[in-house]
C-alpha cells in the first residue's frame, strides 16, 4: 500500500486530526467495550446464555448499524455547512436527524416486540438459543429509540467538530451500565435479562444528555419535513450499504449457530473484538469525515485530497500496531471472555483472520471516512454490495454446505474486506469524490 494515493498537500496538522480522532475513539470504543464487558459477564453463565447474547446482540447491533445515516449522514451534511460558516444550519441538521431517530426508533421497538421470537428462531435453528436470545432482545429493544437519538447527536456534533462532549455523554452512560451489568446478572440474580436492562440504562443516560445539548443550542426544535426528506435521500444509499453489511454478519451468525453452540460462542467473542477494533480504527475516519466535509464545504478541494493521503498513512500504522498487539494476546485474551473449553477450542479458527486483517482495515476505514465526509454515498453503497455479493456471501454459505466452520466464515470476511479496499483505492485515486459546496447529498 503506497502512501501517496492522491495528489495533494497535507495542510492539516497531525494534532488537529488526532484532536478530533482521540475523543471520537473514546465514543466509538465505549459501546463495543461495554458489549465486551457484557460478553465476559454473560460468558460466565455458560455457553447457552452466551449464545443467546450473541444472537440477540447481533439483531440489536444490526438495527443500529442499518441506520448509520443518522450519524454518518448527518455529519456529512453538517460538516459542509460548518465549513461554509453556517454553524446554526449545521446544528439544525441534528434537530431533524433527532426527530427521525425518535420516529424510527419507536417503530422498531413495536415491530421488534412482535417479531423477536421468529427472528431469533430463523437465525439460530436451535430452540433453546432462540428463546434466550428473544428474551434478551425484547428488553434491550426499549433502548432502540435512545440508541438512534445518540447516533443523531454524535452526527451533528462531529459535523461542528465537537468530539469532546459526545465522549463525556457516552462514557457516563456506559460506565453506569458496566457497573449495573454484573450487579443485575449475578447480584440480583436476573441472569441474561440483567445485561439487557443495564444496556437500556446506558442508552437512556446518553440520549438524555444529547437531547439537552440540542436544547441549549437555541435553534428551532420544530420538525421540518423537507430537511428530513433531504437526509433520507442521503440515507437511502447508506441504508442499502447497511443491508449489505447486515446480510453478511447475519449470515455469518446463522452459519455459526448451525455449526455448534461452541462455534457461535467463539464467533461472538471474536466478532465483538472485531467490532471493538473496527470502532477504534474508525476514530481516524470520524476525524477525516469532519475535516474533509468542512474542507469541501469551504471550497478547499486540495486540502480534502491531501487529507485522504494523510489518514491512509495513519490508518496503516494504527492497524498494523493493533494486529501485532492481538497476535501477542492470542493465548491470554480469549480466556477473559469464557472458561468454556469448547468455545476456547473454536476461537483460533477465527482469531488469526482477525489479526491478519487489521492493517488492511486501518486503510479501508480511513478511506471510508474520507468518502463519508464527501457525501459519496452512492459509491459506498455500490462497493459494499459488490463485495458482499461476490466475496462474503458465497463463501459463508459454502462454509455451511461444506462444513468449513469458523475458518470458512472468516475467509468470507477477508474476501469482503479485500474487495472493498480495492474499490475504495480506485475511487480515492480518481478524485471524483472531491465535490465542493455547502451541501452535497
Automatic annotation (TrEMBL):
CDD domains: MATE_DinF_like. It is found in: Cell membrane. GO terms for molecular function: antiporter activity; xenobiotic transmembrane transporter activity. It is a multi-pass membrane protein. It comes from the Bacteria. GO terms for cellular component: plasma membrane. Signal peptide: none annotated. Keywords: Cell membrane, Membrane, Transmembrane, Transmembrane helix, Transport. The chain crosses the membrane at residues 17-37, 49-73, 94-116, 136-157, 169-190, 196-215, 238-257, 269-299, 311-331, 351-372, 379-398, 404-422. Belongs to the multi antimicrobial extrusion (MATE) (TC 2.A.66.1) family. This is MATE family efflux transporter. The lineage of its organism: Bacteria, Bacillati, Actinomycetota, Actinomycetes, Pseudonocardiales.
Amino acid at each position: 500500500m503506497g502512501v501517496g494515493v492522491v495528489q495533494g498537500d497535507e495542510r492539516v496538522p497531525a494534532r488537529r486530526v488526532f484532536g478530533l480522532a482521540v475523543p471520537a475513539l473514546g465514543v466509538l470504543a465505549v459501546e463495543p467495550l461495554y458489549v465486551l464487558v457484557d460478553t465476559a459477564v454473560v460468558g460466565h453463565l455458560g455457553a447457552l446464555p452466551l449464545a443467546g447474547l450473541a444472537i440477540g446482540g447481533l439483531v440489536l447491533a444490526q438495527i443500529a448499524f442499518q441506520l448509520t445515516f443518522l450519524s454518518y449522514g448527518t455529519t456529512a451534511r453538517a460538516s459542509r455547512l460548518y465549513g461554509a460558516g453556517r454553524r446554526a444550519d449545521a446544528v439544525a441538521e441534528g434537530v431533524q436527524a433527532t426527530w427521525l431517530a425518535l420516529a424510527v426508533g419507536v417503530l422498531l421497538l413495536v415491530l421488534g416486540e412482535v417479531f423477536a421470537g421468529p427472528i431469533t428462531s430463523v437465525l439460530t435453528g436451535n430452540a433453546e438459543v432462540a428463546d434466550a436470545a428473544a428474551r434478551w432482545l425484547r428488553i434491550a429493544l426499549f433502548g432502540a429509540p435512545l440508541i438512534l437519538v445518540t447516533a443523531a447527536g454524535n452526527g451533528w456534533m462531529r459535523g461542528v467538530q465537537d468530539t469532546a462532549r459526545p465522549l463525556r455523554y457516552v462514557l457516563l452512560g456506559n460506565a453506569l451500565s458496566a457497573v449495573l451489568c454484573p450487579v443485575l446478572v449475578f447480584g440480583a440474580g436476573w441472569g441474561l435479562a440483567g445485561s439487557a436492562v443495564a444496556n437500556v440504562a446506558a442508552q437512556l443516560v446518553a440520549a438524555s444528555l444529547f437531547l439537552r445539548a440540542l436544547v441549549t443550542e437555541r435553534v428551532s426544535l420544530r420538525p421540518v419535513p423537507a430537511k428530513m426528506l433531504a437526509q433520507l435521500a442521503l440515507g437511502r444509499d447508506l441504508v442499502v450499504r447497511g443491508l449489505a453489511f447486515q446480510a453478511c454478519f447475519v449470515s455469518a451468525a446463522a452459519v455459526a449457530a448451525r455449526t455448534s453452540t461452541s462455534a457461535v460462542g467463539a464467533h461472538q467473542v471474536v466478532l465483538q473484538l472485531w467490532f471493538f477494533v473496527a470502532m477504534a480504527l474508525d476514530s481516524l475516519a470520524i476525524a477525516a469525515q469532519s475535516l474533509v466535509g468542512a474542507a469541501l464545504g469551504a471550497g478547499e478541494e486540495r486540502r480534502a485530497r491531501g487529507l485522504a493521503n494523510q489518514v491512509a498513512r495513519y490508518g496503516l500504522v494504527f492497524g498494523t500496531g493493533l494486529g501485532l498487539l492481538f497476535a501477542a494476546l492470542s493465548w491470554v485474551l480469549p480466556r477473559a471472555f469464557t472458561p468454556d473449553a469448547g468455545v476456547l477450542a473454536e476461537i483460533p479458527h477465527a482469531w488469526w483472520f482477525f489479526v491478519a486483517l487489521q492493517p488492511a482495515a486501518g486503510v479501508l476505514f480511513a478511506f471510508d471516512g474520507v468518502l463519508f465526509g464527501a457525501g459519496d454515498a452512492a459509491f459506498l453503497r455500490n462497493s459494499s454490495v459488490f463485495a458482499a455479493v461476490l466475496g462474503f456471501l458465497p463463501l459463508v454459505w459454502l462454509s455451511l454446505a461444506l462444513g468449513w466452520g469458523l475458518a470458512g466464515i472468516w475467509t468470507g470476511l477477508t474476501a469482503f474486506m479485500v474487495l472493498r479496499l480495492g474499490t475504495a483505492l480506485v475511487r480515492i485515486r480518481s478524485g471524483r469524490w472531491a465535490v465542493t459546496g455547502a451541501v452535497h447529498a
